[in-house]
Amino acid sequence: MPLRNMLKLVLASTLLAAPLPALAWGHEGHEVIATIARGYLTPAARAKVDAMLATDTDTLTGPDMIARSTWADAWRSAGHRETASWHFVDVELDHPDLASACFSFPPQAQPPSAGPAQDCVVDKVDAFAAELADAATPAPERLLALKYLLHFVGDLHQPLHAADNHDRGGNCVTLSLDGGGTMNLHAWWDTIAVQELGPDTATLAATLAARITPADRQRWEQGTTRDWALESFGVARAVAYQAGSAPGCGTGVMPVTLPPGYDAAAQAAAAVQIERAGVRLALVLNRALDGTGLASPSTAQNTSSVGGATAKHRSKRRHHRVTQRGGVQ
Ligand SMILES: [Zn+2]
Q: Domains in the chain, please, with CATH?
């Protein structure tokens, strides 16, 4: 549906209904990933995750595994800017070099939750996975490692957290939206590219989990954190940066209008990236917390196709979700 029509629905819904709770899309994307991952945890790993989280008195988010997937963003916002660089790895489009995007892979502080500030999501996923796997890690640090992992594996799969066009991962690119208003490209991927996929977190997680075949899972469980980052970079280059924006963070640049077909390609890519992130978050947690490794899906269902259902949810989501985004920035 064109955004113009969506905005009409916003107005209609605003008049007819009480406002829906404001969900930052970034939050919802992470919660969907954690929900998918939870379905792939072994019973032993799931029990350990829950037991660790049950010891946590932090109130920045809810206490359960799904809510804790957004904790690292809340922590950064609560005055911990020293963790800001850990959420991404800005691989440059014109010079794709993972090492330079990751500050030359610096040694970890001890413990890794203490730094260094100049480090990237790839290093932090590996460092926190190693801490989580080590039963000798002091309990408070091991809990932090778990909470960071619940978030950072997701961030790694947001294409604009793994790519840069000298534009702060698309934050400097202003999009002119169909119905009026503007939004930056990075925020568009954090929110709109995923919001339109399903009507709510639980339904979207079930829909995407149901599309994951055993062959997908087997394929996605291969590779290293670095490979996953470069794959995410590839999605940014092939899809996200097809917006037609110029490199850089200049002022006075005209807003970009997304080309025809961009929205559909972005949604398809976002869906697969969320599915991959869910599978890999489970893999990381199973490896660290249950040496037996791989689980058979429990809440996740492996079915070959849910295309019809997906399309239906998609159109429902468009009606529903846009009501929460009335003032498109
Ligand atoms: Zn983040």
A: 3-325 (1.10.575.10)
> Who surrounds ion ligand 1 at CB < 5 A?
73, 87, 155
Residue 301 to residue 211: CA distance in whole angstroms = 8
- CA–centroid distance, residue 235 to ligand 1 (Å): 18
Measure 186 CA to ligand 1 centroid, in angstroms: 12
Residue 8 pLDDT exceeds 90: no
pLDDT digits (tens, 9 = 90+) for 147-178: 999 999 999 999 999 999 999 999 999 999 88
Determine the number of helices (DSSP H) and then strands (DSSP E) in the chain: 15, 2
Length of the chain: 329
As a whole number of Å, the CA-based R_g of the chain is 19
Separation of alpha carbons 278 and 43, rounded Å:
16
pLDDT digits (tens, 9 = 90+) for 28-84: 899 999 999 999 999 999 999 999 999 999 999 999 999 999 999 999 999 999 999
Q: How far apart are CA 113 and CA 146, in angstroms?
A: 11
Please tell me the distance between residue 135's alpha carbon and the centre of ligand 1 in angstroms.
26
For 151-163, the DSSP string reads: HHHHHHTSGGGS-
Record the pTM: 0.82
- 189-192 — which CB contacts under 8 Å span 24+ positions? 189/158, 189/159, 189/160, 189/240, 189/266, 189/270, 190/24, 190/25, 190/26, 190/29, 190/158, 190/160, 191/24, 191/25, 191/26, 191/325, 192/25, 192/325
Q: How far is the CA of 88 from the centre of ligand 1 (A)?
A: 7
